[in-house]
UniProtKB/TrEMBL annotation, chain A:
Pfam families: BPD_transp_1 (PF00528)
Protein family per UniProt: Belongs to the binding-protein-dependent transport system permease family.
Membrane topology: Multi-pass membrane protein
Cell compartment(s), UniProt: Cell membrane
PANTHER family associated with the record: ALIPHATIC SULFONATES TRANSPORT PERMEASE PROTEIN SSUC-RELATED (PTHR30151:SF38), ALKANE SULFONATE ABC TRANSPORTER-RELATED, MEMBRANE SUBUNIT (PTHR30151)
KW Transport (keyword) present: yes
Entry-linked CDD domains: TM_PBP2 (cd06261)
Species of the source: Kitasatospora cheerisanensis KCTC 2395
Signal peptide residues on this chain, from the entry's feature table: none
Protein name: ABC transporter permease
All copies of domain ABC transmembrane type-1, residue ranges: 82-262
Record's keyword annotation contains Magnesium: no
Keywords carried by this UniProt record: Cell membrane, Membrane, Transmembrane, Transmembrane helix, Transport
Residue ranges the record marks as coiled coil: none
TrEMBL record, chain B:
Taxonomy, superkingdom: Bacteria
ABC transporter domain residues: 6-221
Annotated coiled-coil segments of the chain: none
Name of this protein: Sulfonate ABC transporter ATP-binding protein
GO MF annotations in UniProt: ATP binding; ATP hydrolysis activity
């Protein structure tokens, strides 16, 4: 080895390799950054209310909204409405996403299933679920069934698309290997296909959860006698912008909670995945 | 004194509590072919990745030429671009670039596959495309990260000849990371062995070209390197290379 000094090496035109710095922010900082956006919105709201840009007949101030929450919580209205609405959304999501999952796996995994089902589901998928509201009213009347069915229909399609796509992307070589070890089709689906499709399934679940809230609003706007939508309809009649704001915030928080739930599910259901989606470097 | 292409002093890289690279000093001269041997997990790929700016050093001085390219163990071709597009990826578009790309493909024997999709190539062909992609950039430092490890034995021998040939013609400085002792002796001007975070051996290969495994100098070096890697065996193994 010829002894070259570092200065000589630099003089010969060598440079230090610059690796892209790993974005390793501590958890607390990352969380703080995440809350920054909502806090800025809240601050803007408070400032415009305090300076009179936003008058109470347009939108109540944050303070009034907090008072409204206290009032609604105190007389039990909010708790009742929440439990009713959440039950509807959860049941609809359960049926809808479940049906979408089963259909998606069938069409993704079996060629015959795809040939038989896919085009039919694609036709149904293009129908806006809001167009089904009158039909469901005729079929089921103003019942819980109509609302849950509407949410179910709305949430089934994103799940179907994600599930069939995720299953179709299964590693064929892995399936082949498992067949050679004598696994049955059901076992292959359980051991290889579903775990492999989990990222797609969870992104489908995320879309379905968002849609379940939207469908919930649509279902509750029509002739409800309880639930958050009913609360909103009443508030509209009495021009209570504070109660309206509460309801809108609740819908927003439901979406946020759904997103958080899926994140937790991702961590729990896929322990084999590298944390934060960052690839593990080689040795 | 020759001009350097790689200059490393006191390089340390720590994963958790383990110092994978613990004070490495290494020089590679321009045009020199260095083979770096080491058992799995000894940090030889980490060293290569640091030289290729894919990983960072925790301590020490690392200097490399501005023009450097990597051939990985897997081809890492973009499936949605044709072979020629993969070779010239990231280079300024134009007829001149396409022409240099085609020339590089011809050099690795893939001229006929310029318009093929990567998925239609065999493992050896894909790896040759990856080699053309590295060479077309005219690197001063070529980093080879076990580029033959995933190939079948016959393809591997052919690829080794091809790489040796191309390196003699283009004269980049080369760092070949491998755990194949025969491959290292066949190709390299110098071999180094990495163990426990340090280079336990760094010596020139004195075997005459063309290098023949039957040559006693080849066999002696092979035995010494295998011993460094913790493989002790009786002399004169029966399998021919």
């Amino acid at each position: 080895m010829s002894a070259v000094s570092t200065e000589q090496a630099r003089a010969a035109g060598l440079v230090a390799p610059r690796a892209r710095a790993a974005a390793g922010r501590p958890r607390g900082v990352s969380l703080a950054l995440r809350t920054l956006g909502p806090l800025a919105l809240l601050a803007a709201w408070q400032i415009s209310s305090a300076t009179g840009v936003l008058t109470p007949d347009v939108l109540a101030s944050p303070g009034q909204v907090v008072q409204a929450v206290g009032e609604l919580w105190g007389n039990g209205q909010l708790a009742d409405a929440l439990s009713t609405s959440l039950t509807r959304a959860a049941l609809g999501l359960l049926f809808g996403a479940g049906a979408g999952l089963v259909l998606g796996v069938v069409t993704g995994f079996f060629r015959l299933g795809e040939e038989l089902l896919d085009s039919a589901v694609q036709v149904l998928r293009t129908v806006p679920f809001l167009a089904l509201v009158p039909l469901f009213m005729v079929w089921f009347g103003i019942t819980e069934t109509a609302k849950i069915a509407l949410i179910g229909v709305a949430t089934s399609f994103p799940m179907y698309v994600s599930a069939s796509g995720g299953v179709r992307n299964t590693d064929r070589k892995l399936v082949e290997a498992m067949r050679s070890f004598g696994l049955s089709r059901a076992a292959v689906v359980r051991e290889v296909v579903l775990p492999g499709a989990l990222p797609a399934l969870l992104s489908g679940l995320r879309l379905s959860m968002t849609l379940s809230v939207i469908a919930l609003i649509a279902a509750e706007e029509i002739n409800s006698t309880e639930g958050i939508g009913y609360l909103m309809a009443q508030a509209q009649n009495f021009s209570r912008t504070d109660v309206l704001a509460v309801c809108i915030l609740i819908y927003g928080l439901l979406g946020l909670a759904a997103d958080g739930a899926v994140r937790v599910l991702e961590r729990l259901l896929m322990p084999w995945r590298p944390v934060d989606g960052r690839a593990v470097a080689g040795r | 004194m020759s001009t350097p292409a790689v200059h490393v002093r006191g390089l340390r890289r720590v994963f958790g509590t383990r110092a994978v690279l613990d004070g490495i000093d290494l020089d590679i001269a321009r045009g020199e072919f260095l083979a770096l041997l080491g058992a799995s997990g000894t940090g030889k790929t980490t060293l290569l990745r640091i030289l290729g700016a894919l990983d960072r050093a925790d301590e020490g001085t690392v200097l490399v030429p501005p023009a450097r390219t990597v051939v990985f163990q897997e081809p890492r071709l973009i499936p949605s671009r044709r072979v020629l597009g993969n070779v010239t990826v990231g280079l300024p578009r134009g007829a001149a670039t396409r022409e240099t790309g085609r020339r590089a493909l011809a050099e690795v024997g893939l001229a006929a596959h310029a318009d093929a999709w990567p998925a239609t190539l065999s493992g050896g062909e894909a790896q040759r495309a990856a080699l053309a992609r590295a060479l077309v950039r005219e690197p001063e430092l070529l980093l080879l990260d076990e580029p033959f490890a995933a190939l079948d034995a016959l393809t591997r021998l052919r690829m080794q000849d091809l790489v040796g040939d191309l390196c003699r013609r283009h004269r980049p400085a080369v760092l070949l990371v491998t755990h194949d002792v025969d491959e290292a002796i066949r190709l390299a001007d110098r071999v180094a062995v990495l163990r426990d975070g340090a280079l336990v051996r760094d010596q020139s290969v004195a075997v005459e070209h063309p290098r023949d495994p039957a040559d006693p100098a080849f066999a002696a070096l092979r035995r010494a390197l295998l011993a460094d890697l913790g493989v002790h065996r009786e002399p004169a193994p029966q399998h021919a290379n």
